[in-house]
Design brief:
The chain is α/β, with parallel strands linked by helices. The protein has a domain of about 210 residues: Rossmann fold, CATH 3.40.50. Helix content is about 40%, strand content about 15%. About 50% of the residues are buried. The structure holds guanosine-5'-diphosphate.
Length: about 300
């Protein structure tokens, strides 16, 4: 499998957080033959539309990043929509890619595929199937597990090459800043921004004790490129750093001067989710943006671009 400057890349979810960062990364590395798909180009839930795009474009490589993505709130509220839409999207993209014989699919997985282990150790790729996903976001986790099973079946029957990148909790400029259904970092950035302009306190969900691997979008793009080059199967693709929700809240509170109230009626979700990164680190991956720098950069990007931000 050779990647050349002429190689053609198709990126689903091209206008999303990671899609934007990956497009920028590939361009910076001399790749110009990119087809970025967003929801206005194609409804990935429609198999015929997806087959048409794949047979028109005939990419060498597919980065499948598109998903119906929410944070804890949306994943818990819209369990059935999350499952149905993601199963359709993933099945259509993997199958259509296989039919046009792409050289490799790099698909976006999620930490929600992992079981809820009590011992709170960094999880390894081979532990995915060792138990049920955490109930708070299990339908999203199951939809990603099914995509992994589909990719494995496709490899077994047709020789499809693939990697399944298990991302951390992602954040960065250009994210969706939906405060009810989005991920924690963009939700908090939006809330702190509003509270600052209105001179109010911010209400934060839960206790702040939950631990996540927070990964900046540009670091994720760099990880995906390494994964395309030399990784196969499920691969942890976080930053390797772990932080509590409370740490993000403190960074934003200090940066904005806004005070905080904790809303104990809201859930903490899975208490710990972070990865053993030895495989991707051995392949040369090293994240460059730490939590404080990344959160402040993202807040400042949001403040500069407000109100022209996705919500
Ligand atoms: P997860 O990493 O898949 O669980 O999803 P999130 O990105 O939504 O992070 C959820 C964690 O952040 C939980 O521990 C929540 O209690 C905490 N949290 C605190 N405030 C917020 C908020 O405003 N929105 C979200 N989504 N989570 C919050």
């Amino acid at each position: 499998m050779k990647i050349t400057p002429e190689s053609k890349f198709l990126i689903t979810g091209g206008s999303g957080l990671v899609g934007q960062a990956l497009t920028k990364f590939l361009r910076m590395h001399g790749y110009e033959n990119l087809k970025s798909l967003s929801s206005s180009d194609c409804d990935l839930r429609n198999g015929k539309e997806v087959e048409q795009v794949l047979s028109d474009e005939k990419p060498d490589f597919v980065f499948h990043l598109a998903a119906k993505v929410f944070g804890l709130g949306g994943n818990a509220k819209f369990k059935s929509d999350v499952l149905v839409d993601n199963v359709l999207i993933n099945t259509n993209v993997v199958e259509a890619s296989r039919k046009v014989n792409v050289k490799k699919i790099v698909a976006m997985g999620s930490g929600c595929v992992y079981p809820d282990f009590a011992d709170q150790k960094p999880v390894r790729e081979e532990q995915i199937w060792e138990g049920a996903p955490h109930p708070s976001e299990d339908s999203y986790g199951h939809s990603k597990r099914l995509m992994l099973a589909h990719l494995q079946a496709s490899r077994s029957q047709f020789g499809t090459k693939f990697a399944f990148a298990i991302s951390g909790n992602l954040y960065g400029p250009g994210d969706n800043f939906d405060i009810e259904n989005g991920h924690v970092t963009p939700s908090l950035i939006s809330k702190f921004h509003t509270a600052k302009s209105q001179g109010r306190k911010v209400s934060v969900w839960g206790t702040g004790a939950a631990i996540r691997d927070f990964t900046y979008s540009d670091d994720m793009a760099a990880a995906l490129y390494i994964i395309l080059q030399n990784q196969e199967g499920p691969i942890n693709a976080g930053s390797g750093n772990r932080h509590s929700i409370r740490e993000i809240v403190e960074i934003l509170s200090e940066h904005t001067g806004v005070e905080v109230e904790w809303d104990g009626s809201k859930p903490d979700g899975q208490l710990a989710r972070f990865y053993d990164m030895s495989k991707l680190e051995a392949a040369g991956f090293k994240p460059v943006v730490g939590l404080k720098e990344g959160v402040i950069k993202t807040f400042d990007w949001y403040a500069e671009n407000f109100p022209n931000v996705r919500k």
